[in-house]
Task: structure prediction
Amino acid sequence: MMGYFVRRLLYAIPILLGVNVLTFALFFLVNTPDDMARMQLGERRLTPAAIEQWKVEHGYHRPVFWNAAQTGVTQLTDTLFFDSTTRLFRFDFGKSDAGRDINADIAERMGPSLAIAVPVLLVGLACALTWALAIAWLAGTRLDFWSGVLCVAMMSISGLFYIIGGQWLLAKLWHLAPISGYADGLASLRFILLPVVVSVLASLGGSVRWYRALFLEELSKDYVRMARAKGLSDARVMFGHVFRNALIPILTGVVVLIPSLFLGALITEAFFAIPGLGSYTIEALQAQDFAVVRAMVFLGSLLYIAGLMLTDLSYLIADPRVRLE
Amino acid sequence: MSDRLLQIDQLCVHIGDQPVIENLSLDLKRGETLVLAGESGSGKSLTALSVARLLPAAAQVRAGRITLGDTALFGLAEREMTKVRGARIGYIFQEPQLALNPVMTVGDQIGEVLGCHLKLRGKARQQRVIEALAAVGIPYPERRAGEYPHQFSGGMKQRVMIAIALAGEPELLIADEPTTALDVTVQAQVLALLKAEQQRRGMGMLFITHDLGVAWQVADHLAVMQAGRVVENAPRDRFYAAPEHPYSRTLFAALPKLEPQAHTAPVVHDQPLLEVRNLAIHFPVRRGLLKRTVASVKAVNGVSFTLQAGETLAVVGESGSGKTTMGRGILRLLDLTDGQVLHRGDDLRQLSSEALRIRRRELQMIFQDPFAAMNPRMLVNEILQEGMLAQGIGGSAAQRDARVRELLVQVGLKAEHGLRYPHEFSGGQRQRLCIARALAVEPRMVVCDEPTSALDVSVQAQILELLEELQQRLGIAYLFITHNLGVVARIAHRVAVMHQGVIVEQGPVNEVLFAPRHPYTQALLAAVPRIDA
Amino acid sequence: MPTPLLLLSDFAAWLLFLAALAYAFTASRREHLRAPWRRVRQQPVAMVAAVILLAHVGITLLDSLHFAPQAANGTEAEPEPLSVLDFVLTPLRTGVETSYSAPFALLGFDRESVLQADGRVAREYPRLRYGGAHLRDPAQWWLDILQRGAIGAGAGALAGVLLLRLLWSAQCRPWRRCDEDPAGRAAALTLLLLCVLAGLGGALATRYHVFGTDKVGMDVLYQSVKSVRTGLLIGTLTTLVTLPFALVLGVAAGYYRGRVDDLVQYGYTTLASIPGVLLVAASALLLDGLMTRHQDAFSSLIVRADLRLLALCVILGITSWTGLCRLLRAEALKLRESDFVRAAEALGVRGPRILWRHLLPNVMHIVIIATVLDFSGLVLAEAALTYINIGVDPGMESWGNMINAARMELARQPAVWWCLSAAMLWMFVLVLAANLFADAVREAFDPRTREATPSARPAGT
Result:
């Protein structure tokens, strides 16, 4: 078991390196460090000396990948790429191009992202599973048909509409919740109500269809026929047999999403002015703050790989065929 | 309580507009076994499912009555029917691999029936579960009750199925091909178990099979089904002494006849066409998603034999013996772990990939499933020419076309068939196409991997005839892989018996089959269901 | 004489259309491709969706024929290139008001300072310049709409019937047979309905602003129709970029395994681990920078916007091939164990030929399903991306831009709801049609739900 995880972690390293290379390449193709300095310093303080100083402060004075001025190993190590990569692996994200401490920002903004993402996941899962289970039970009836129609319709509506419509209906018209914004602590409950409701609704259609398909696929398997041949009631077949088997792919599909919860839903956060990691990234992108983008991409990749590992782990726990040999 | 347990009266079942069971009437008395025999597509499984009212949604009962004891089954509401299933009708399915819930322990799956029908709970239930497992011959039942289906072997899984079916103490046991997926040696044990339990409990058994040899061992009465109808219904002895219906007679003819047959011995050359020395093929076992190599499956573990030009060497073994793996390994369609494969003196393992590719022309293969062996998206013409194109033989396009037409006639089809797609042909015709494809490159040796197992009985003989004829005319050597001893007796010169990756005995056919020396060969021959008629 | 102008995206659109026609032609010759499409053809819902989608394709193609109109004598400025659709919709295009106006309104939405007849300046709702300007008596508004609507609908119905007659006779199918073909009937009805709507639109839209006008007075219906091309192109061109990567890499990885597989897996894991939006955003910003630096290379705004659209398709394509690649790799892994591939190997057929002749044709069903499924997702994605400024050029008509601009309008008192609603509604119809069609395609092409072929073994009986 330990060997497995160690191997997975080792495999993660070349991926993270590759991700970093890609990010660097993308950014430095557009902006040279000089351009970045100019953007950050603004027109007023623009002197060659200031640019140089800014570059030294942020470590951009070194060459990107290859330092021809040095000899031996230092040709590789005394570069921006090497330095930033090693620091990323130490989770030292450094300072943003605008001068803020990235680690602190991340710690601060993680909370609001989670405050929205976790309820969305749990509530969404509960609603979708209940609906899908009920519909799979009633498969073939008119209710199933109309439910299917509703799901397709819900899926076909843009997520933006749910957000804008939700804001207009619940906030502006009925004054049930504030349109946007965020507060810390218990007061946040008011502010997360709308984003959570909107996000759950937006993803409900697709999830229900997917879970329904999984349940129906299980229902067509031989062990269900065998369970019925044993004389078990429909309810027992559904909950005791089908649900437990279908839970395996459902669980693994959900678990893989858990790490990405930290990043938050970028669009949702932007629309509802939630100071989470998602909006943090968007702002950084728009300001072309390379240090922040670099850090967020790294974090995102790390979380993705963590998600893959969690998926394997959940298979291990849920499926006895994998657990026991 | 009357003697009659099950009565099926004029049953008619349709799928869509197609009748699949027509005017079927059967009787079963308590304590007796009725065997429903027939080939695939005859409707025997659907009949059994109708009794338990477990037909698939697409099938509808159009007419008829089924009575179990005093109860008319079709008149019951679904809720009442669930009380009948399991408690009065026990059902054993064909594939235990698929029929057992993979995420529930074996004990729980048995316990469900006990809790649902016998209302047992807690300790009493657990006790009964262990008793049930012990009764079907599963060792260490206390421990194994907590294990999952995948931890049991094929034969053990089937025993678990039997335990589940019997747990509710049913009056009627329906067994749908319960031993078809099992090895011959295990089959005998399971059949004995079923018969013993039936006697002990005084149940009636409805037994479905396509194998007349198996039917002999369990039947009191026999009903033969063809295309949804019962064509003959007789007590066992009378049936086996003199079957009346022509269809029954064709079924009889399909039974393997183990009689010594005369073969012309092939010429023995100095250098055999193929010589295999200590061949080994091992697969690393990687469990689940951990991909850890926990062990090696030694599919082929040190096999040696020779094959002369123009002769047929049969390789016999049960499923899992490694014979198919060996066949593919010899052609280097798999990687070999150890050993040598000498073809005309050259070790195939040492050849470069390009040299091997060219050598492939002389070593061809015919696969078991003719449906899967041809690309459904290619015309027959293209399929037959592909080998010629790859090997750079056959000349111009016109010459290749001519050769294709010639080949089609050679294997008993028509020249125009080249312009069709594979799915337009029947199973037997497809297999002929596969043979034509192999012949196109003029091989000296063909590995035949169970070429007749997937075909209907009546077609099997024709394919074997074709292969024999081709051998006589073209002098091709066959490595004939099969589990059917009757086919071996008919077509092979020499035979090698494989068991768990090694050859336990080999020699001329008449010697090995009729005077076996190795205990495994003896057990294999003894387990072949035969009719002492 | 107007000079034709071929934009790059026009070229791509027509190329795609021709490729689709070529596919249809080859599919009709091959039984194994004809059968599943025939199954799709028999579903009424799928046929209705197909007609709607085809209508959108028609709009897109009309909008993909550009020409540079001749400058009117004496003007200095070079007129913007127009498309055939622009030309057809000229009254909507040129009927620009000053600002907002509600659907079918006669008056502007905001008060303006209007010079009265007696010289005073009053703040009142001004009469629109084009919307309902022909009405002498504003009270006759209802009647006028009804009259025009009736005439338009009637004309549309007539045109629809004639069109159906033409199609029917082209297919040589007698009228009587329509009872046996519920799907064909549904399709015909839909076509008729669309013709009626077009007639209605034609009659009313020339005199009124059917969906109102936006902030700068542009007719909203015109904007919506123009956005069709943007949405459709993004949905289809992206797949064009995705396919080569996913196909080649996925199938090769599944067949060759070993190092090739490791490399491909590394590639798509790395790419997939970068949050998609970030990748698109970064690439888009990169592109922005490039374009800003080479301003002079673009002959006009429309060319620049066009290139940005194409670039967005390319970026979306490059960032989203990983999903399909994974599916294809899994399928190729399965297929390589099948007997016919082994048989080909036994015959000495070389690797690339096996990939081309045996693996590729047998994974195409996955490609088709994925392509059709992704379409709706991409159309929706465009709207979201435009919000964070990494979508299409703001000057280009797209639903994303419409939504973006309209977002703040709901906060006004009274709210301006028509721009948003028009965009949402139209997008909903297109995406719904695409989803329903995709469902039917998936059911028809998935081998698990396929019925047994004629001589296949019957299911265990």
Observations:
- The radius of gyration of chain B is 26 Å.
